[in-house]
């Protein structure tokens, strides 16, 4: 793995060679994507590029990561194409969900204000990079999943039945629903999607506490807001 600066210096000749050949390509550091019309042509170009790198530039080629694949099976800098749309890769999304689980973990003993601040910083940074994805379909589901995890964190933080009932009543939940939910022995995750917790901790209410909306950020990036 080359540093971006070193790669840009060493591989500048490769960029010029690819441009001279008329190839459509993109490169960041030592990650290179070349778009070719057919698999057969792709194999020829791959061999030719490998020969140029090892022969002229004296650089080793990683055969394990050098592949000729269709555009829908190609991942470049965390992105891929699916059905003609640019979207984040499954690997990038798995990393995102893993980090969200860490930031919204029940066992992380921090205040909700601090948790929401750290979550907002991470989500904004992630969306500033991956928000150019054209695929809107998963966006509402991601938002709902994050809100549910935050409701779970609040519920765990309130802890005691009297505290849970008091907070739910203050947030507008009916007395019956507040008591039934607080007395339930079901898991924090299950209770985070009950009528009591959702009417008490509304979407707008969570937003006022500082919860960032993935949908709002996506809409802004794509010029809809």
UniProtKB/TrEMBL annotation:
Coiled coil segments of this chain: none
Alphabetical list of InterPro entries matching this protein: DNA/RNA_pol_sf (IPR043502), GrpII_Intron_Splice-Mob/Def (IPR051083), Mat_intron_G2 (IPR013597), RT_dom (IPR000477)
Superkingdom, taxonomy of origin: Bacteria
Molecular function via GO: RNA-directed DNA polymerase activity
Family: Belongs to the bacterial reverse transcriptase family.
A Pfam family of this chain: RVT_1
Domain spans labelled Reverse transcriptase: 1-81
UniProt keywords, alphabetically: Nucleotidyltransferase, RNA-directed DNA polymerase, Transferase
Protein's UniProt name: RNA-directed DNA polymerase
